[in-house]
């Protein structure tokens, strides 16, 4: 009987180390944005012990890095998902430097090496405007007030809500279907009343955004893809 061929896995994954005072144990996780594996090292762990842990898990890291979706740099001709639309990035050197949408195209002017930065700026502003609208609506329905909104690029969270009512969102949500962005906005607004993930919390999310479960599942299955855009 012939043997099944072994799965081909790269043997040299890029693993970076981050020392964390808050970590209680060593963990290895995939950073889809950077395309590396991150080894989190808590206090008191020696270099020898960290080296041993890394060697033991290198094959796991290589396998999962190889499974990442391909990168999608912001370049001329890219088919860019924006909520429920697909826009083609078009570079026109004589066009205004600030990117602008024209029908199904995103027109970017200026130098070629500035395309990526200008596309990201446009996406961040689009995310801010859209999320402000959604959050305002949900908060009004709850009779609550949002202290402010911050648009960032976190590696592990799509949104957060502080006890003071300040919210933070990933600009990459604008690359997802609109229902997904709405779900995350509703999720964080529900925290204005319930700073937990109890049954009462999830019931409130469902009141704000009925049928959110499909959007939540989409994000769990496709979130890494959103982190592969840009650069």
Could you characterize what this model shows?
The chain is α/β, with parallel strands linked by helices. The chain has 2 domains: 15-66, no CATH class; 79-226, Zincin-like (2-Layer Sandwich), CATH 3.30.2010.10. Helix content is 37%, strand content 20%. The chain has helices at residues 47-66, 115-142, 178-190, 199-208, 212-226; strands at 15-19, 27-31, 36-41, 79-82, 85-91, 100-102, 105-108, 148-152, 159-161, 166-170. The strands form 3 sheets. The protein has a 4-stranded mixed β-sheet with strand order 4-5-7-6, with helices on one face. Helix 2 crosses helix 3, helix 3 (178-190) crosses helix 4 (199-208) and helix 3 packs across helix 5 (212-226).
Quick overview of this protein structure:
The chain is of the alpha/beta class and 231 residues long.
Total separate domains:
2
What is the name of the CATH superfamily of the largest domain? Metalloproteases ("zincins"), catalytic domain
Number of helices: 5
CATH architecture label name of the largest domain: 2-Layer Sandwich
